[in-house]
Amino acid sequence: MDQSIHNEYQIPSSNETPIVSGRDSTIMGKDDFLKILIAQLANQDPLNPMEDREFVTQMAQFSTLEQMMQMTNAIESFARVHESTALVQHSELIGKEIVWARLVEEDGRIVDIEEVTNTVISVKRDLDGSIRLLLDDDRWINSEQLIQVNEKEDSTDAPEEDNDEE
């Protein structure tokens, strides 16, 4: 039986770069972990085999690693769905009157917070995923600045007062 470790499993020398295709070479996946485990089993000393306890521990680590990877994928998927629906949810603000917080600065310091009322004209998502609102005064604000949302008062829908004198 060959006592050497296969080149695929050895630690690279300082001048070698590990060859990993299609992913970050610093991240070990479940396949890498399983390959190491199989290499350990294949190359163990037959007179001094790996203890059952060690094998069970490594299998538990493998199982934990796989579960963590599945959880990471689920969280990433949830984040993508949330990001894609945020724009649609904020589009419901178009035509609504909002109250938002404007920071008042003096000499680079925030000295006050004003509540300002405007109507939302448009909504967009920036490259970083943040939602921005275009107001009726041509100002873009972050959705985090929202304080209150109101139905826009329309002057044509306002009830007319009865001025008939008898």
Which key features would you list for this structure?
single chain, SH3 type barrels, 2 domains, 5-stranded antiparallel sheet, 2 helices, elongated
Task: Provide mean pLDDT, rounded.
Answer: 78
Summarize the main sheet.
5 strands, antiparallel
Shape summary:
elongated
Q: Give me the number of helical elements.
A: 2
Molecular structure report:
The protein has a five-stranded antiparallel sheet with strand order 4-3-2-1-5, covered by helices on one side. It folds into two domains: 7-11 and 27-86; 92-150, SH3 type barrels (Roll). With 166 residues, it is an alpha+beta fold. The protein has two helices and five strands; from the N terminus they run ααβββββ.
Short description:
The protein has 166 residues and is an alpha+beta fold. It has 2 helices and 5 strands. Helix content is 32%, strand content 24%.
Write the layout of secondary structure elements.
Elements: H1 30-42, H2 52-91, E1 97-106, E2 109-125, E3 131-135, E4 140-142, E5 146-150
Antiparallel strand pairs: 1-2, 1-5, 2-3, 3-4
Helix pairs in contact: 1-2
Pfam family, one: FlgD
InterPro entries: FlgD
Biased composition (Polar residues): 1-18
